[in-house]
């Protein structure tokens, strides 16, 4: 019967990893894959993660299941980190999930159960967003978000589009470090957007996958908090993959902010039932690490210090890249103002292919670059190769 299945296209980013690995040229540069890299090109394990793991191995007494909801202490600590004062005294249903992707999928399934039929998604966005929403049965409606040639946010166009959304529609927001554009909403824009969402009775789903990679842990949650302060209900999908470097441990959470505690209990029971029929119980190891770090002042300070170094490295390469590329493309001064690991360059696909073929510089056809893929020593040479296009 399997012959009835259509072959699915390879994920373009995963295919790019294969091409990069097979390239034997010295000095090849990978600006494709979306993970943090240090000056040696490695994706390091945080010192605090190593120490937390050491403690877990020494002290863990059982490998019995955690429940479908996961560990409540992890969830409380992550909630405080993600929302700070805006999250206190809110009724919230929390569930530990396999990564941010697992959180997005459960949020989408829950929305479908609640009778939400449409979700508004900015263009461009992370390609997995529409894919997850569609497989959960939601209709994905696009709205303008970012203009690549001018490197600017299409705020008025976005607001006009969202004014046509209907009460009960959901709207996807990136908390910080927008993937793929790095574009940053101002505080005023977050306020205007939150007011519109509240007035129109829309349900925000906020994806927070890079807290701490943009301007700092608190600054990166400011927009999310503005939304939470304005609305009675919201969904949050959190990933610990990047900011704790726990990618393969699949660590995240979904939070549903509800009007009352009773409703939160009901939302939580539905999330747990959805998890039970998908994967039953979440993986434990990554969440146990995060909980250990956030619950220990010394480990937490060390984790924050290391995260600061990562953010500083990405920001400094970002500045140099913007200065270099803007010699030819004036508009790319904007890259310096963008945040997080990604920017989306105004390059044609043939330029992307030429950079790959002639200079062993790898990025997807969309020209989304991961700035963390660059070592400081390479920046000037890579800029020259871009300028030679
Ligand atoms: C915008 C965004 N959301 C969510 C995720 C989910 O990450 P994970 O499932 O690895 O935790 C990612 C990962 O790249 C992302 O870029």
TrEMBL record:
One Pfam family cited in the UniProt record for this chain: Aminotran_1_2
Domain of life: Bacteria
Residue ranges constituting the Aminotransferase class I/classII large domain according to the UniProt record: 28-385
InterPro entries noted in UniProt: Aminotransferase_I/II_large (IPR004839), Asp_trans (IPR000796), PyrdxlP-dep_Trfase (IPR015424), PyrdxlP-dep_Trfase_major (IPR015421), PyrdxlP-dep_Trfase_small (IPR015422)
Gene3D superfamilies xref list: Aspartate Aminotransferase, domain 1, Type I PLP-dependent aspartate aminotransferase-like (Major domain)
Keywords: Aminotransferase, Pyridoxal phosphate, Transferase
Required cofactor(s): pyridoxal 5'-phosphate
Any one GO BP annotation for this protein: L-phenylalanine biosynthetic process from chorismate via phenylpyruvate
GO function term, MF aspect, one: L-tyrosine-2-oxoglutarate transaminase activity
One GO CC term, this protein: cytosol
Complex and partners: Homodimer.
NCBIfam families reported in the protein's UniProt record: PRK09257.1 (NF006719)
Family named by the database record: Belongs to the class-I pyridoxal-phosphate-dependent aminotransferase family.
Protein name per Swiss-Prot or TrEMBL: Aromatic-amino-acid transaminase
Originating species: Rhizobium subbaraonis
């Amino acid at each position: 019967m399997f012959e009835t299945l259509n072959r699915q296209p390879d994920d373009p980013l995963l295919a790019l990893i294969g091409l990069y690995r097979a390239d034997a040229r010295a000095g090849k540069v990978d600006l494709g894959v979306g993970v943090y890299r240090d000056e040696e090109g490695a994706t390091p394990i945080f010192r605090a993660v190593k120490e937390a793991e050491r403690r877990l191995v020494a002290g863990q007494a059982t490998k019995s299941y955690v429940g479908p909801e996961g560990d409540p202490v992890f969830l409380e600590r992550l909630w405080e980190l993600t929302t700070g004062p805006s999250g206190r005294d809110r009724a919230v249903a929390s569930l530990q999930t396999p990564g941010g992707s697992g959180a997005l999928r459960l949020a989408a399934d829950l929305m479908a159960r609640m009778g939400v039929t449409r979700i508004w998604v900015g263009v461009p966005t992370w390609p997995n967003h529409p894919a997850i929403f569609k497989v959960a049965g939601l209709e994905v409606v696009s709205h303008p978000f970012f203009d690549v040639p001018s490197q600017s946010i299409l705020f008025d166009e976005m607001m006009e589009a969202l004014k046509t959304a209907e009460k009960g529609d959901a709207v996807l927001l990136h908390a910080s470090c927008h993937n793929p554009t790095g574009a940053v909403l101002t505080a005023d824009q977050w306020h205007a957007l939150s007011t519109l969402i509240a007035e129109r009775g829309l349900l925000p789903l906020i994806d927070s996958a890079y807290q701490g990679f943009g301007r700092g842990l608190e600054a990166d949650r400011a927009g999310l908090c503005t939304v939470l302060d304005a609305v009675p209900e919201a969904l949050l999908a959190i990933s610990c993959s990047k900011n704790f470097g726990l990618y393969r441990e699949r660590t995240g959470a979904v939070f549903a902010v509800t009007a009352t505690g009773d409703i939160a209990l009901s939302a939580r029971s539905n999330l747990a039932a959805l998890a039970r029929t998908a994967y039953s119980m979440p993986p434990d190891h990554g969440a146990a690490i995060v909980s250990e770090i956030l619950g220990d002042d010394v480990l937490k300070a060390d984790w924050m210090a290391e995260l600061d170094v990562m953010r500083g490295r990405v920001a400094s390469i970002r500045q140099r890249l913007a200065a270099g590329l803007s010699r030819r493309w004036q508009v790319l001064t904007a890259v310096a103002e963008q945040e997080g690991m990604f920017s989306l360059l105004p390059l044609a696909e043939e330029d992307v292919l030429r950079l790959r073929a002639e200079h062993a510089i790898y990025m997807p056809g969309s020209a989304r670059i991961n700035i963390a893929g660059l070592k400081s020593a390479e920046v000037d040479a890579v800029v020259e190769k871009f300028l030679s296009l």
